[in-house]
């Protein structure tokens, strides 16, 4: 079943949305349904309308002074010994062993940061049919030994790691 368009303006970055609507870019190669192509002139205005219609209140992010250290922590969280995101998510277009979750290295390019934070805290709330587990149930970190169990700090570490996109360091647990 294709994903819904509910709150897609708050979810997707405008550049990514344009690539989907105009060029048919996809993150789910396993899905047979594709976005129909209507021509750029016919739908380009929808991107701004989605952005205007779907807003979320701003949120506070975790902050760090040492970007190199926070990216390392993010790499560890994504890996086998952290939250093990790599078990389900594709990485640099290499399929995960268990299932074809969306590619980690596309996330920061694709998603708006506010939406990402909200999703990480309560995945089923934003996407009721997702199989994504909640690593911060009720806003509380399950990994108390990482960044003193501070939820926003952990999510920011993952986000900072994801900002490296296809250049991101390979997390532990990736089997090629």
What does it look like?
There is one protein chain. The protein is mainly α. Helices cover 39% and strands 0% of the residues. The chain has eight helices and no strands. α2 packs antiparallel against α3, α4 crosses α8 (151-162) and α6 crosses α8. The longest helix has 14 residues, at 40-53.
Structural class: mainly alpha
Beta-strand percent range? under 5%
Major sheet characteristics: none
* Rg value: 16 Å
Shape by Cα distribution:
globular
Spell out the key features of this protein:
single chain; 176 residues; mainly alpha
Chain-wise SSE layout:
Blueprint: H1 8-11, H2 14-23, H3 40-53, H4 67-78, H5 107-110, H6 113-121, H7 123-126, H8 151-162
Short description:
The protein is mainly α and 176 residues long. The protein has helices spanning 8-11, 14-23, 40-53, 67-78, 107-110, 113-121, 123-126, 151-162.
